[in-house]
Amino acid sequence: EETGKGRFEHYMLKEIYAQPEALRGTLSGRIDDGTVTLESFPEGTFEDVDQVHLVACGTSYHAALCAERQLVRAGIPASTTRASEYFDLQTVDERTLVVAVTQSGETADTLSALRRAAAAGGRTLAVTNVVGSTVSREADDVLYIRAGPEIGVAATKTFTSQVATLAMLTHRIAQGAERGTPREDAAAFFRELARLPDRIDELLAATAAETVSRQHIGRQSYFFIGRDFEYSVALEGALKFKEITYEHAEGFASGELKHGPLALVTEDATLFALLTGARGDETRKNAEEAKTRGATVVAVAPEGMEVGEVADEILRVPDTHPDLAGLLANVQLQLISYHTAYGLGREIDKPRNLAKSVTVE
Ligand code: G6P
């Protein structure tokens, strides 16, 4: 059953629904009552890490952006670069941990970034799904996300597993590195992470994404806004949407709407506003700016939140730790993309012009 579509019409939908199971695989044996164990990293592994560079492409880049925020909050200087743009390596040395995030482990742009990092004297680590992939053989160390095979070209379950894996990695680096300070609420955070597969199950059982997506087919543009982790999710939501629906979609930092993108907002636009996370209230205000200009607003919001008049429709996500709620919001957006593409009759598992793994630069 692992490689067939089972009861699903597309691999993408199967993989969206496989997220609880994939995430259980990712977390299995690694979290115990709020403490994190990563098999390949004994005590002392990260002692001399001064900074972290994350390099990745596509969906993996969005997962890396989430990790960058967590690292910086833990006191570790970190930056994320699109692998094809990673060529200013002046600050790379043996105390720089260069993390290549790649589902397939075969993306040419990411492999060359990793090779440039190694040549510059950096220490390399691969975060990948595929055992024995090129990246796993070339990097100094490897950490597997253990999400199981992903067949649909549009990455879904591997994003969730990447973000979770990188959260555990961040914690280990913050504990190990001289300058790191692990998050104060680590026990609560990791307890909620361990429960996240159940929350995704709850969400999947109750989602209104199919009905909502039907109301919005044929709009001129689709915008996705969020702040903090939800900004990365907005970028990921828009990427997924354009990949499989072929409709015009853009992700923005909520606060940036007024610095340009608002000029694009008309009555023919649908705006997905991510109101989950620590800064959801601020995004709600930004969504109002778009609503005033005529956009239809779909809010993705936690169970208990009073959303008010700004939203024409609401997709709810179960309550969890604010830093994890974006992953739940992302599942709603995956479903929105899927059902919209389905409604438009697109070739969901093999979108035009795209490949699962791009092995040319
Ligand atoms: C291709 C795929 C994307 C993927 C990207 C990076 O462009 O179509 O879905 O996110 O490659 O792939 P990787 O295997 O490196 O994560």
TrEMBL record:
Keywords: Aminotransferase, Cytoplasm, Glutamine amidotransferase, Repeat, Transferase. It comes from Halomarina halobia. GO terms for biological process: carbohydrate metabolic process. It is found in: Cytoplasm. The keyword Kinase does not apply. The chain holds residues 242 to 602 of 602 of the full protein. GO terms for cellular component: cytoplasm. Residues 37-179, 208-351 form the SIS domain. It is an enzyme of class 2 (transferase). It catalyses: D-fructose 6-phosphate + L-glutamine = D-glucosamine 6-phosphate + L-glutamate. Catalyzes the first step in hexosamine metabolism, converting fructose-6P into glucosamine-6P using glutamine as a nitrogen source. The active site is at residue 356. Its EC number is 2.6.1.16. This is Glutamine--fructose-6-phosphate aminotransferase [isomerizing]. GO terms for molecular function: glutamine-fructose-6-phosphate transaminase (isomerizing) activity. Homodimer.
